[in-house]
């Protein structure tokens, strides 16, 4: 169920400081007040070093343990490698059928491999599958060299992108995740990266759910066991080195709710699958996510003084989702706090207030209210008339 659009308020009803409009998602009946709250148990304790559970739409963190601790990410690194490849494809800088020269350096890279051959040419699309499905170190290096001329230069791009995403506890040295003392990432950062992969390049996301990929007559399975066990799971990536242990970033979708789970530092392939499944099951069982407003939804039309028109439409700049405990939706309220005086000119995207969402007495989300359109200054007569109206309005208020 979605919150209804907020009704417009006459500017004459605006208080001296802010406008506060309180909306109940649903009226709470008197007999409901005696019912007990939905019971939610403590989150599961995992046999792992670090973990996090995040809702992909709202960004809410439902469970975490040492989630900001920098740790060796092993092949979870390849999520950023794949992200940059997908970015380059969608930007038109490379094409899926571009042929990539396989260098001796790429061919000799150890660890998990796609088994490309030195001196051959391989399409970008095949190498991307080799990275995501087969966790090929050779494919990762080949793509890094193709995009940036070398792996170290590609790592610079990886770090720049990580900074843009707010991955504050991450630093990349290579495109593969092979051990290095200055190569690390946190569970929280990897959840942020997974969210971007899912949302920024949805046209490529199907690759992460593919169970097998065959190249050079060698058929290799995706190492994510949950793809076989749970039909709601459709990605993302596994990782393993002696330093990192067994790691997994998984995403699952049920109905309109998508969760991202990151588990790092388990002791076996089976353990990372089981521990990740615990997080996902907990999230889907005890929480729900719903959309409050679409991007660009008009929430109010406050008065503009001295403008070419009298009102400006305001709303949220992006779709607004909330994740709440099961059964708590009826306890939510929304409040608009609109700037006391709005003078023209107004730029589209200019912040004109805040939207506060509360669960009971606790504010759980605060979102900027922005102008959804520009309002230019009115003519001289319009500005003078508004000055008079504003003066007398102030007297009555």
TrEMBL record:
Residues 1-30 form the signal peptide. GO terms for molecular function: serine-type D-Ala-D-Ala carboxypeptidase activity. It catalyses: Preferential cleavage: (Ac)2-L-Lys-D-Ala-|-D-Ala. Also transpeptidation of peptidyl-alanyl moieties that are N-acyl substituents of D-alanine. The active site is at residues 75, 78, 135. PANTHER family: D-ALANYL-D-ALANINE CARBOXYPEPTIDASE, TRAFFICKING PROTEIN PARTICLE COMPLEX SUBUNIT 12. Removes C-terminal D-alanyl residues from sugar-peptide cell wall precursors. This is serine-type D-Ala-D-Ala carboxypeptidase. The lineage of its organism: Bacteria, Pseudomonadati, Pseudomonadota, Gammaproteobacteria, Oceanospirillales.
